[in-house]
């Protein structure tokens, strides 16, 4: 286990870091301005940007953080060092997004993540029937570009910082080689979603790398003694079947696996998408040795394919050919920043809720041996856990006052991060910190102050925007639906109409928490809310059922894909109209056809109303009209 100080010493960059900060201090003392130059360049153009929130890293955590901050009123600069968004889910790596639902394996409760990630998954299922990795890139790009408050900088790397004080970030220095631009990006709140924690490392945020020893936190799944090892990285490949034999001649530098016994515990009976267990490098410095790790992973991945094609043990592979192989390693472990709380194995196994919970997880504690494929032991050990909350205290730095983080770099032990690191969980953490960042800007406070003074407001905003937090229910004082009388054209026992105002917008174990009409009754079906007194309403929120008990994610693994409904989810309301009621009159203010999204927010000119009626004309296949929640605002 190494700390930030140990890391700097080992990398022999402690003096460089000190020199960098000293240089900035000297420049500022001489009054030379705030710009920082790596060298006297004749081609680099220096530019200054300003934003309320600066997000470093455009993987799933960063995308969700940027969108959440922007939707909550903050101006945002999103910095991504690759040409596409999505991180490990992008076309460059092509890992499918998994999370708390355990790829649809958690059957006892609705567990799929909602909020921004659910929007994206539902959109992809409808608009990307061909399961194109590049279409997923395009969808993420579209979702970010359509937010007017976001300035997106692709192909741009965080290379340094300017500190406003010893423990407060002033600016990020970022370089975009494709346009020869050097940016100084000033902000109020900064979010590190870079995976490896580049921003936090630059600013001096406390962090750890490696595995804690068993005794430090009493974690039974930790190694007996601490070390500097992490999980390894992986490279994936995709193959395609042809109507004729397709030979494969490997490069002479590939690894050799002449027998299936040379790949113990590593299933390779299907090969259209392989393999997460092509893993290596956790025993090395996962950042500084990344190029070496990439080269070795290519040798391993191609060696596995050579085994399948040329060992003679898999003759049915004769007509299969390599279609794509990744050149960017899928990194699992690196820096983990330290917040005011460190999440541990015990928290996960107890299903801890936490008063300051802002996101949830539930993927197993999924530990991989650092040496990856070089070990003869199984490629992972997965220990199931119940759903658990992630506290806000794990998502901000304990020593840098305006730094938040989300993704695999949060404040957790190595054992706990083995569950929190997956992209579904990273996404909901991203939405949480993006929302928190916008509130920090609004109230001119630090994340720590927000956590102490306004955590309930943060939680309620997250719920309103379709996030889920275990144990937190809608208590929004401005939602006038909460005190309405609810009626419906029909209902099913346990799925009563009144559920739409009970404050929970998903099934939780035996509680359905939704209205479902009688499936034997034809459409249309209707749901009415009647207010205690006339209200001038202007906004209605509707939350529909999208089958949160199933897996839903873009995958290139055919067996996994067959377990999904790829397209509009059958439970989801498709065609509906929203009517404003006043006495005996009804006025249609919204009419929608072809819906497939879960969360719909409708705004209209203020209307004096004694109630509302939702008339459902069709679903995407289910015989019942289903609604989780209705909110109404003046």
What can be said about this structure in brief?
The protein has 634 residues and is an alpha+beta fold.
Instruction: Indicate the low-confidence ranges by residue numbers.
Output: 11-32
How many β-strands, per DSSP? 28
Radius of gyration (CA) equals: 26 Å
Structural category is alpha+beta
Structure annotation, total helices: 14
Distance between the termini: 54 Å
Shape: globular
Largest sheet: 7 strands, antiparallel
Strand content: 25-35%
* Overall residue-averaged pLDDT value: 94
The percent of residues in helical segments reads 10-25%
What does this structure look like?
This protein has 634 residues and is an alpha+beta fold. The chain has 14 helices and 28 strands. Strand 25 (573-582) and strand 26 (585-592) form a beta hairpin. Helix 3 (60-71) packs parallel to helix 11 and helix 4 (116-127) packs across helix 5. It is globular and about 80 Å long. The model is unreliable at 11-32 (pLDDT under 50).
Please write out the topology.
Elements: E1 2-3, H1 4-10, H2 14-29, E2 45-50, E3 53-56, H3 60-71, E4 76-79, H4 116-127, H5 133-145, E5 150-153, E6 157-165, E7 168-176, E8 181-186, E9 189-192, H6 198-203, E10 207-209, H7 214-217, E11 233-234, E12 237-241, E13 273-274, E14 279-280, H8 290-310, E15 320-325, E16 336-337, H9 345-350, E17 357-361, E18 365-367, E19 381-383, E20 388-391, E21 403-405, H10 414-420, H11 423-443, H12 447-453, H13 455-464, E22 485-488, E23 515-516, E24 525-544, H14 558-561, E25 573-582, E26 585-592, E27 599-619, E28 626-633
Parallel strand pairs: 2-8, 3-4, 3-9, 4-5, 9-21
Antiparallel strand pairs: 1-10, 6-7, 7-8, 10-16, 11-14, 12-13, 12-15, 17-20, 18-19, 22-24, 23-28, 24-27, 24-28, 25-26, 25-27
Helix pairs in contact: 3-11, 4-5
